[in-house]
Design brief:
alpha+beta; 3 domains; 5-stranded mixed β-barrel; single chain; 10 helices
Amino acid sequence: MVNTDSGKSSKSVHLQPEWLFTLNQNRCSRSSGMGVHDGPEYAFQHNNEMYRSNLQMMAKKGYVPTKGIGLAASAVVAFERELEKIQRADGSFKENASLFVGEVGEQIEREVKLETVIPCDSRFGVSLLHIFRDLETDAKVTWFNSGASKFNTGQTYKIKGRVKSQEVREGLKQTLLSRVSCADLKLHEAFHGDMDEKDYLKKLKKIEDIDAQDARQETLLYKISVIHGHYGVGSDIMRELLDRGADPTIRSKQSGDSPFDLWVLSENKHIVDEAIETHPEATIRWTDEELEKYDLLDAEFVPKLRATRDAQIEKLANQSAIKRQEAIDKLFGEPTFKKESDVGALVELECPEEEDETDLLKLA
């Protein structure tokens, strides 16, 4: 809880119980001021640092005064750092392997995951440093691109490129590529209103990853749904993509819409009804307020959409509570919240009148 009033009465906002629990695992002895470790082996340790110790005291008390709101906010980032430490400890966080991929001058084809994109200033302007992880070897592979990025961070791609150089940086071998391309992204900017659908259907057969995402997190199904909405063409391509298992729920980072959302907006009843059956989770965005906003309340598919949406919201709420509880129990080794209704529950805590507000965040 955070005390948002400087008076004796308190107003409370919700702090996530799992990171409060993490910060509070290492109890602090009032008599000695020493840390007494009574939590799991990866419990939060203050390491004799004032900031970390103040976080620990905040979690122990369960509330902070107005001046401590900044500290409470920073606890979220501290919690994420602790989770990363746990991941490293249990092996779920992988370091790059110190290996070269291919030989200098060789044309290679690899399956990689894009880990990050870093803008870099040069005399030619801004270049984008793409850092990939080779999925077969865990080796670090890099590529500089002077134009817009083609790829979406966190996604996997099969790429082709020429090995430009190989070097060791900070003790880690890495391979620099040039002329990088991805066959699964070649059609993303190719659809247009006057296209020959038969020609593109042939080209689709060469696509391996039907849900490959570009830098805007847009898939082929999203692209053709936009074209279909504007020009009324591309229905055969949409059908081919859906038959091959394309996901209509992946949202564009630019527009915030998924292919399913575009179908709803264009009132394409047949395909909306079909998608409700195969991907009921896609309906959750469409609250009554959203339907009214876009003047869709009278659309033929709305009764089915509403019923599916309400059932999905109830189902996901229950699943979320269960998964949250399981994750907390797994992380800390024992149940921390006994009842499902207690997960994330808001408990009112009053600021003790006898304590000086300025002392609440000091070391014990």
